[in-house]
Write a structure and sequence with these properties.
Organism: Paenibacillus cucumis
Protein name: PilZ domain-containing protein
Radius of gyration: 15 Å
Number of domains: 1
InterPro entries: PilZ_domain
Strand content: over 45%
Strand order of the largest sheet: 1-3-4-7-6-5
Shape: globular
CATH architecture: Beta Barrel
CATH class: Mainly Beta
Mean pLDDT: 88
CATH superfamily: predicted glycosyltransferase like domains
Length: 125
Amino acid sequence: MPINNRKEPFRYTLKEPMHFEIYILSINGMDGPSKPIQAELRDISRSGCQLAFPLSLPVEDNDIRIGINLKLFEDLLYIEGTLRWGMEYNMVWRYGVQLEIAVEDQDRLSREMRMLAGQGKIIVK
């Protein structure tokens, strides 16, 4: 029987990306613009996610914090995170986000992801 030595949380890849708005909360500790950015959620785990949006941000040289209001299945979740990497793909930028999920929201996020998996809307990797 194979042994699972996985150290990272399972990543859930969405069959169809979800559209929502993100907010840049701060760049290097300075307040970000208040205007929301249209984004797509490509995949998510309990510790991070991959977003896509048409804005180039210099992630490698800056500490960029974002806020996300996201409804995966039933519950609206507010999650904050830090952009860790970015790369251009077909004229759209994709970003890796390290999520900072409040303790009280961790179980809700896991439940929402399981519900999406049960509906066949995501693939577990």
